[in-house]
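User: Please fill in residues for this 185-position structure.
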């Protein structure tokens, strides 16, 4: 496992709305600290950082434009040299131009962190893998929420997180910890 000099860190949906209590119980309480560890390393090494912001189409969403939930959390504000990708669906590649920008910059390796593991993280990582990018997901720098499965059985955030990572690992992405990613740099 080796990080390329231009490996991009993609930070998904670190907006104020994700802290909304109505979203329910979450896992990985240290996820933001792990994201910040990676962000600090990326900034000091000069590797590309890509911030993904969700602009919901649903007025009852925590990410509905025009209210504070859509804004980035202060500690995750993009810097001038960093990319901003705005999306309207979970997948950061869908109708955003992200793939074209990555190809133009000759970036082939992506490190994905953020929220929610089972939603935007998983859909973005699946597309990245399908498009042929060397995709890594930092399991301790992502989190999700308690959610009922299709049959109505309540699942803990830990179960949802684990299943989502299981869906990705080995097929669409390499799932590993942030410490392993930092050590590969």
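Assistant: Residues filled in for all 185 positions:
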């Amino acid at each position: 496992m080796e990080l390329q000099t231009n490996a991009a860190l993609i930070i998904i949906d670190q907006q104020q709305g994700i802290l909304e209590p109505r979203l329910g119980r979450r896992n990985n309480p240290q996820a933001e600290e792990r994201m910040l560890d990676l962000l600090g390393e990326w900034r000091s090494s000069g590797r590309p950082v890509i911030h993904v912001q969700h602009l919901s189409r649903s007025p009852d969403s925590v990410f509905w434009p025009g209210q504070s939930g859509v804004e980035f959390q202060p500690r995750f504000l993009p810097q001038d040299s960093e990319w901003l990708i705005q999306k309207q669906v979970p997948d950061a590649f869908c109708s955003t131009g992200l793939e074209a920008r990555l190809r133009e910059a000759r970036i082939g390796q992506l490190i994905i962190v953020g929220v929610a593991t089972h939603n935007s993280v998983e859909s973005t990582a699946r597309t990245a893998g399908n498009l042929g990018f060397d995709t890594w997901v930092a399991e301790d720098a992502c989190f999700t929420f308690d959610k009922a499965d299709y049959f109505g059985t309540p699942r803990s955030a830990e179960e949802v997180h684990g299943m989502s990572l299981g869906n990705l690992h080995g097929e669409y992405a390499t799932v590993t910890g942030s410490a392993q990613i930092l050590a590969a740099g």
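For context: Residues 8-184 form a domain with the Rossmann fold fold (CATH 3.40.50.850).
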